[in-house]
Amino acid sequence: MHELAICQSLLREVAHIAADRHARSVTDIHVGIGPLSGVEARLMQDAFPIAAAGTIAASAALHLRCTGVRVRCESCGAETEVPTNRLVCGRCDDWRTTLVSGDELLLERVELDAPRQVRQAEESAHV
Amino acid sequence: MCDTCGCNVTHGNEHLVAEGGPLAHTSSGSESVEVLKNLLQANDHEAAHNRSHFDTHRVLAVNLMSSPGAGKTALLERTIDVLAGDLNIAVIEGDLETENDARRIRDKGVPAVQISTGTACHLDAHMVHSALHEMPLAGLDIVFIENVGNLVCPASFDLGQHLNVTLLSAPEGDDKPAKYPVMFRAADMMLISKSDIIDVLGDFDPARAERYLRELANPAPVIRLSARSGDGMTAWTDWLIESLEDLRERVARGETIRPAIQPEGASLHAAHSSG
User: Fold this and answer.
1) Does the pLDDT at position B27 exceed 80?
2) What ipTM was estimated for this complex?
3) From its phi and psi, is residue B58 left (phi > 0), alpha (psi between -120 and 50) or beta?
4) How far apart are CA B19 and CA B41, in angstroms?
5) What structural domains and CATH numbers belong to chain A?
């Protein structure tokens, strides 16, 4: 049950981003999870409100995008989608494969309620 | 990609963030920020710090993982006996409660630091960092980190170790690698422990256990051993000595050893630094 620790780490990162953007609150958090990351999406969804209580993301919705497991075969070169506990090539059955996706644990996108004038001021300064 | 100050807005993409553009503000009036950051970044950063601390002292760090009761401490006791006089060993012990395991190691005359994790189901890089403050590395050859007995959570946290060793004790059944793929995928060495009772059990097939490991695309070596009978101990300690020599050669070239399977954060970091 380390999903709570993962949520706390996620919220630290989100708080940094929100502070940089002078956000009033965080509305949506998008995270990509692969089954080989060792993190269970349902448990993370349950742990999130506990970790988020009292933070700038207290009312944010957590969106989890669960990715599939894909491997590339070192023998025949095929890239196939495979079960989590059987990472052998889906075409030639060779076990010497490289993981292409399935172990990610990524904060992908954050949506903020930010004062519009700050954003516009930054844009005019940098463009 | 810098996403904190807006400097990544170029002539090519400014239409995306301009008023009414898809990334400027969503229909609800909120601002959307692309991030793509690993969630274990803080842990991985601390782990890299630990690894470089081990490297500086030319000490091999081995993370031992298994279910509770698979024989990690018994293996360490026997390993200490076999290597006594040849290599200097120290142990970091992780358990939810008690100093029992650290006491068993100290009884062998080897320094041990106990980390009591309370309710936490795994060690993380910060806990190991704290333990290292109590453990002078000068004069040591190998530090074993005995992780919390758990086949799930410890696999997700890099501690700064050079190698992961996963024990599968014979009474647990030969299909554990198929049931706990995240853990066994991370193993740089799989030890089939309590091999002295395989014949008594009758239904544990070491070849099948190894086949399940290969099906996780893991080429790690497999050794059958018994801390009680001593069977397989030489193969295990030979592997440790080879790994220590390998580490020291690499450190002399300014390199290190990393577990074969790194968490996503480390691979992203590697991609960034090589690009």
Assistant:
1) no
2) 0.79
3) left
4) 33
5) 3-65+108-126 (3.30.2320.50), 68-101 (no CATH)
pLDDT score for B156 = 87
User: A26 to chain B: nearest residue by CA?
Assistant: B30
B92 token code pair: 């970091």
Q: Which of A6, A99, A118 is nearest to B4 (CA)?
A: A118
Closest CA relative to residue B260, chosen from B143, B109, B149, B155: B155
Give the HSE-up count for residue A63: Cα atoms under 13 Å, Cβ half-sphere. Answer: 10
Cβ contacts of A95 on chain B, cutoff 8 Å: 214-215, 217
A41 in B contact zone (CB under 8 Å): no
Report the 3 state secondary structure along A5-67: HHHHHHHHHHHHHHHHCCCCEEEEEEEEECHHHCCCHHHHHHHHHHHHCCCCCCCCEEEEEEC
| Whether A85 contacts A36, CB under 8 Å | no
Strand ranges for B170-245 from DSSP E: 189-193, 222-224
In this prediction the pTM is 0.83
The answer to whether residues A37 and B156 touch, using CB atoms and an 8 Å cutoff, is yes
Nearest C-alpha neighbor of B105 from the set B79, B123, B140: B79
- Rounded CA-CA distance B125/B50 in Å is 7
Beta strands B89-95 and B60-65 are: unpaired
pLDDT reading at A107 higher than 50:
yes
- How far A78 CA sits from the closest chain B CA (Å)? 15
The full set of domains in chain B, from first to last, is: 1-36 (no CATH), 41-266 (3.40.50.300)
